[in-house]
Design a protein that fits this description.
With about 400 residues, this protein is mainly alpha-helical. It is built from 16 helices and five strands. It has helices at about 10-15, 20-60, 65-110, 120-140, 145-155, 160-175, 180-190, 190-195, 200-215, 220-230, 235-245, 260, 265-280, 290-300, 330-335, 365-375; strands at about 355, 360-365, 380, 390, 395.
């Protein structure tokens, strides 16, 4: 008797793939809080300094009453601006909390499903598949399609549309040879990236320097280097030395490393560096979740025989049957070729196994039935994979030990 595989659902194993679902809102909430605290601290210091100056000047008679009132009005306007910013941060926090609540509820459904055979698990898996598709579309640059799919399926709170669309916008601006949007992003997140010693902003400033040198603006290039590049001499000293040497070489030079610095491939390097920095900052996986799920699923199903010359009818024209193995299918065979196969501790075999002279093992009843259907004479059997024909007397019974 074949052992029946248990179908009890283990929610913990499913949550391994869904860690970014909760990690990103946590990172966004932390970022939102830090930015709000920075604004409060910056305006607090400025207001206290302005208030102290105004009070001292008023008491000493250095300013008139109208000038003091103007100074107070300016402080009040600054506080109103701060309140407006705080309202924006508050709305952002409410959105993050709503998304977190929806995602926790989505994951909590797993613990209410007792078995993999439950219809509720099919519904949950279909919802997760839609999330993976939206994630893949966003990472591939199809933001409008991703937004349309998320809206149609009602999963806007379960996907990260705004984050990825902002990332794609900056990425495309870099591929279009513009540094302005990426520098604005770096300025907004400088406090968060400073602790990681990230070089993105330095590389962007270096690219601006290269473009000034390419256009022959040597004076502007030196001024730019003095303002933005040489200040990082402790951490980027070799790059600064190469940047200095660039002044002596024209854009048409064949000398390395200056030829590479002038190359347009640096824009691709900057684009990839930004995406890497963005994903690390928000704790996002570097690969699409769809790839991770497919890799795990394909490896779990793959066996050493899946890529043999007799793998299936899809790869062997003489085969008379179609394999039920998904890895041997035309669609997935090449996709799984470079993946490792797992070590299976249990195997499922027919209840009446026999072995053919070529060493291939099948179930006796199903082999005879198939041979009869393809029109072989009585006493003959056909290997469904290699199409070899043998006498029935040549088959031998197999005993599993």
């Amino acid at each position: 008797m074949a052992e029946v595989t248990p179908t009890k659902l283990n929610p913990e194993s499913h949550l391994l793939l869904d860690q970014p679902l909760l990690r990103l809102p946590a990172e966004l909430s932390r970022k939102n809080f830090k930015l709000a605290a920075l604004h409060v601290e910056h305006d607090r210091k400025a207001l206290l300094a302005a208030l102290k100056t105004t009070a001292n000047d008023s008491l000493s008679g250095r300013t008139s009453a109208s000038e003091s009132l103007d100074s107070l009005d300016a402080m009040i306007n600054r506080m109103r601006n701060l309140k407006r910013k705080m309202n924006g941060f508050h709305e952002e926090e409410r959105t993050i909390r709503r998304q977190t609540r929806a995602r926790l509820e989505h994951l909590h459904h797993l613990y209410r499903i007792p078995s993999l055979a439950d219809v509720k698990y099919d519904d949950w898996s279909r919802l997760r598949l839609n999330r993976l598709l939206v994630d893949y579309l966003l990472r591939s640059g199809y933001g409008e399609s991703a937004a349309a799919l998320a809206k149609e399926k009602g999963i806007e709170d379960l996907v990260d549309l705004d984050i990825f669309m902002q990332c794609h916008k900056v990425e495309e601006s870099l591929r279009g040879k513009s540094t302005q949007e990426c520098l604005a992003w770096c300025s907004e997140h400088r406090e968060l990236t400073r602790k990681t010693h990230n070089t993105l902003e330095f590389e962007l400033r270096l690219q601006q320097y290269i473009e000034l040198r390419r256009r022959g603006q040597l004076t502007e290039a030196r001024q730019h280097a003095h303002k933005y590049i040489t200040s990082d001499s402790e951490t980027n000293n070799p790059e600064i030395h190469r940047a200095a040497g660039l002044l002596a070489y024209a854009p048409e030079t064949k000398v390395e490393p200056y030829k590479t610095m002038y190359s347009s491939s640096r824009w691709d390097f900057l684009s990839n560096l930004f995406v890497k920095t963005h994903h690390e900052l928000f704790s996002l996986p570097s690969r699409p979740l769809m790839h991770i799920a497919l890799s795990a699923g394909l490896s779990a199903l793959k066996t050493p025989s899946c890529h043999s010359m007799y793998a299936s009818s899809s790869s062997n024209a003489s085969s008379t049957t179609t394999t039920v193995c998904p890895i041997c299918s035309t669609e997935l065979n090449e996709l799984a070729r470079n993946l490792r196969h797992v070590q299976h501790n249990k195997s499922s075999v027919e209840h009446d196994p026999i072995v053919l002279p070529n060493g291939r093992v099948y179930g006796r009843e199903r082999l005879l039935e198939m041979s009869s259907k393809v029109g072989l004479e009585e006493g003959k059997v056909k290997d469904p994979t290699t199409s070899e024909v043998f006498d029935a007397s040549q088959i031998r019974k197999v005993f599993i030990s």
